[in-house]
Amino acid sequence: MTHHPRPLATARSHDPRPIRVGLVGAGPWARTMHARMLAAGPETELAAVWARRTEAAAEVAAPYGARVAGSFEELLDLCEAVAFAVPPAVQAELAVHAAEAGKPMLLEKPLGSDLPSARKVAEAVAEHGVVTQLVLTKRYHPATREFLRRAGRATVVGARSCYLHGAFLGGDFATPWRLEQGALLDLGPHLVDLLDAAVGPIATVRGTGDPRRWIELTCEHTNGAVSQASLSGSVRLPRARTRVELFGPDEELVYDTAELDHEECWPVLRREFAEAVRSGRGNGIDAQRGLRLQELLDRAMA
């Protein structure tokens, strides 16, 4: 079966019809976020679902009247764009094929289970000129964008941050890849992305501790600032805690997700992905950004 990449200057630029998205995966995140978000529209519709277990794909597809693809190749034929909700190793393998087929992609973080596989994804995306968008959830909340806007005008000399929860202790998200890789690859992309964007580009990063229990990162930024990040998915808390504190000669600037409603992220994410697919221009939160974050996390592990 031959697929022909669609050029970046797409004919859908002013087409009001929803983008037909195929979903890869049928786990908890596919059910609770991806399928529900994509089917809610109006910018997108859930066209089809494929998973290695057909019965699981059918359960995800049924509430939205989506097709169940018999293979990944069939999914590519049924959609204009692809969304991934699978473990990093699976995403990295299939995303290369989707890029070769010219399909815009909604990608999860991390891009791959290791740096070489992440690099293959980014290289395939660049080679075939496909638009991508990364599901760095918090980046799509208005409060996050306001924090980053204010941080861009501040002089920061130091920062402290944390992303902590107990999801790895049990439940739907205590999945094999998370238990094996730990918080660094699961939570790390979110926090390192915020520090890199709010404080300034990270030049060096060092990690201490065990990613499966608790890991501390110390980052030195190109502007001379120093930041620290605490990461764990294995501590008992009443709810997830994400906090970034910026310090400098002016009043401290604090970002805290305790009061944020993450439901506000999904319409923004969906709208921007659809706009990217239609226009052929992404929002910068893409595979290349994902590769940079994975390069930084790889240095921390080293």
From TrEMBL:
InterPro entries on file:
Gfo/Idh/MocA-like_OxRdtase_N, Gfo/Idh/MocA_oxidrdct_glycsds, GFO_IDH_MocA-like_dom, NAD(P)-bd_dom_sf
What Pfam families does this protein map onto? GFO_IDH_MocA, GFO_IDH_MocA_C3
Start and end residues of each Gfo/Idh/MocA-like oxidoreductase N-terminal domain: 19-133
Oxidoreductase found in the keyword field: yes
* Domain of life, source organism: Bacteria
Upper taxonomic lineage: Bacteria, Bacillati, Actinomycetota, Actinomycetes, Kitasatosporales
Residues in GFO/IDH/MocA-like oxidoreductase domain copies: 173-248
User: Which keywords belong to this entry?
Assistant: Oxidoreductase
The protein in question is named Gfo/Idh/MocA family oxidoreductase
- Chain coiled-coil ranges: none
